[in-house]
Design goal:
Radius of gyration: 17 Å
Number of helices: 4
Largest sheet: 7 strands, mixed
Number of strands: 7
Order of helices and strands: EHHEEEHEHEE
Oligomer: single chain
Strand content: 35-45%
Helix content: 10-25%
């Protein structure tokens, strides 16, 4: 039987699960329970939690500030990796971008697995943040996925008909 992966929005009932996953996956200033709770009150913030067979397995947090969107964190529990959860979370983030023209994130320069993962979704390295991480100290690549602009030049006003 195949594993069932479901993705839902973070809420008052489940934000602690995202904080647990964050603490497990990140050593460099992980967000606190209170920070995840605060995200619920921000109009521009979206957090989605992935469940594998009913258990929280990963999450993605992003900020939508058109024309730009930013992925702050994407994480999958170590024992749940390589099952497609990260790919589903990334696709949900991309789909959520709507009118945004680009989606950006930071990644440790040494994290070749994550860089390859992001490359697979069309992200490219566009910059470098020196000493972005502190535990351990390391630079970060800024990676961005640019959405293609509508190339319809027919003069359509956008009205139906």
């Amino acid at each position: 039987m195949a594993d069932l992966i479901e993705i839902g929005a973070m809420s008052e009932e489940n934000y602690a699960l995202a904080a647990e996953i964050e603490a497990e996956c990140f050593s460099d200033n992980p967000w606190t329970l209170n920070q995840f709770h605060e995200e619920l009150s921000l109009d521009f913030s979206r957090t989605f939690i992935a469940y594998l067979d009913g258990e929280a397995a990963g999450f993605v947090n992003m900020w939508l500030t058109p024309p730009l969107a930013i992925i702050n964190n994407i994480a999958v529990r170590a024992d749940r990796r390589r099952l497609g959860i990260g790919a589903l979370l990334m696709q949900r983030a991309i789909d959520e971008c709507g009118e945004c023209s680009s989606l950006s994130l930071e990644v440790r320069v040494s994290n070749s697995a994550a860089i390859s993962f992001y490359d697979g979704f069309g992200f490219t390295q566009v910059g470098l943040r020196k000493n972005f991480y502190s535990n351990p100290k390391e630079d970060a690549y800024i990676m961005t996925k640019f959405k293609k602009k509508d190339t319809d030049k027919s003069g359509d006003s956008g009205a139906d008909g």
